[in-house]
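Researcher: I'm preparing a figure for a lab meeting and need a structural model of a single chain. I don't have an experimental structure, so a prediction will have to do for now. The sequence is pasted below. Please return the structure as tokens so I can convert it later.
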Amino acid sequence: MPNSPRKSKITASRRLFLKTKLLKKAGAMLAAEKEEKRVERENTLNERVPPLNLSGLSIQELQALCRELHHKIDVVDEERYDIAAKVAKNDQEIENLTMKITELKGKMKRPTLRRVKISADAMLGALLGSKHKESIDFKANLKTVKKEEEKKEEVTDWRKNVEAMSGMEGRKKLFDAAQ
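Model: Understood. Here is the structure written out token by token.
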């Protein structure tokens, strides 16, 4: 029985139990990964951006601090814009290279073609553009060919001239007629 379906070695309830265990484990791992990323982000921010000490500063010092922070924000924003432009450029280059690879492999997807009913005038208008105004008679330029009528052999009564065609004289006449 090579084509008969094989029976599963584990029962359906055991399979369901294993699936739920796997989903619980994956959920726990996902939550742990999110928490790890949050802690790593906090540590990185604390490292790069020292906490602000605003107590005891005068108005001029606060304004200078605000200008400095605005300048830093502008610098970071410019870097982010430059990086985004580089990423977009690299993505476009990757797309172009993959297109070239698929062209070289010859595995281009062919679009499904649909039959379009279009008149000869509309087709000429599409091909020639607006300079095509009047319809062209295609049959007018065709060469005319005269049909030659086939030479019909005259059906004669075979009984006529039997005596004239008999013997060597008749064969000689047929031979002469053929040449």
